[in-house]
Amino acid sequence: MRLVIARCSVDYTGRLNAHLPLATRLLVHKGDGSLLVHSDGGSYKPLNWMSPPCSLSSEVPGEEEASAGVVEVWRVTHKKTGDALRVQIYEIIHDTSHELGVDPGLQKDGVEADLQRLLAEQVERISEGATLVRREYPTAIGPVDLLVRDADGAAIAVEIKRRGDIDGVEQLTRYLELLGRDPHLSPVQGVFAAQEIKPQARVLAEDRGIRCLVLDYDDMKGIESGIPRLF
């Protein structure tokens, strides 16, 4: 992973156009090829980014750019859509690279871990006649929560969250892309499951052909325990 603090401006072109004027920012270039542009605010969310599969190339600034103080230009291009992120760098303040190694993945806490276990035991909530292949099915970027097959044998990858937001949809999208390369699984359907799914996340998921599933944690626990429930 390469971490660069630089005075830069950023332009995104593709399905939409966006511009970040000149300012000091953190550029994070990850081993998977992605680039994230961060400011000193906004918590974990980048100002702009390019998700894999993508490639980064360095360009020599044009005469007009060089005269304005640009010393280097980065172009990050998405390999499938052609969307591009162009970073004009005026000054590099800090530049380091680090080998992070293989990440063990997120350890599920409390309710989320229970949701995964319960849904694995109640896979018919995902699809009638479905069968579980495996929990924590491995991919090159971490495990997808559940891999199941429907009654016709089609593969379904399921990502489970307590609260489903856009980041969760993006995460499942990356898993689907990797799993879809396996001829024994392809084509792979996606299901985004959560106790609560934010409207923006639902729109993004449905736009990408991912089905949303709202989970009733109490109901799922009631089925597990066998205790009669009035409501």
UniProtKB/TrEMBL annotation:
* Endonuclease NucS N-terminal PH-like domain location: 2-104
- A molecular function GO annotation: endonuclease activity
Keyword annotations: Cytoplasm, DNA-binding, Endonuclease, Hydrolase, Nuclease
In which compartments does the protein localize? Cytoplasm
Highest taxon in the source lineage: Bacteria
State its Enzyme Commission number(s).
3.1.-.-
Q: Identify the residues that the record assigns to the Endonuclease NucS C-terminal domain, covering every copy.
A: 111-228
Question: Which family, according to the similarity comment?
Answer: Belongs to the NucS endonuclease family.
Q: What is this protein called?
A: Endonuclease NucS
| Organism per entry | Microbacterium aurugineum
* Gene label: nucS
